[in-house]
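Translate sequence into structure tokens.
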Amino acid sequence: MPRELPPELESRIEGARLVAHLATCRDDRPHSAPVWYRYEDGTFEVMTTGTKLANLRANPRAALSFQEGADGHPEWMATVLGSATVVEDTAASRAANRRINRKYGADPDDWSENVLVRIDPGSVTYRTY
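Result follows.
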């Protein structure tokens, strides 16, 4: 069962146009890359391809990190550790890609080759400064 995020964190990330950093693992080495995301009903959706996708297919452990602030001074940070599910359904990926792109103001069909990954939180660290 996914872990619930603190309500204050949910309100900070749900509709915000933040960039998350998705961390995956391959050969006991971390790989981190920025991604757009969508959060709803306790699950994160990200669209990805390449190294991140290959890593998640081999090992579903994932982390997302977030922070927001000004001039290099964070106001808050969060790290979500969880389990990823690669969704091998083209229609579901297309629909999620459009949702995420609309959130960030991009053309709904940009990056349509990416694959949907859902991440269910297992543990959450959240801190304000």
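Note: The beta strands are 20-26, 29-35, 37-40, 43-48, 61-70, 73-86, 115-128.
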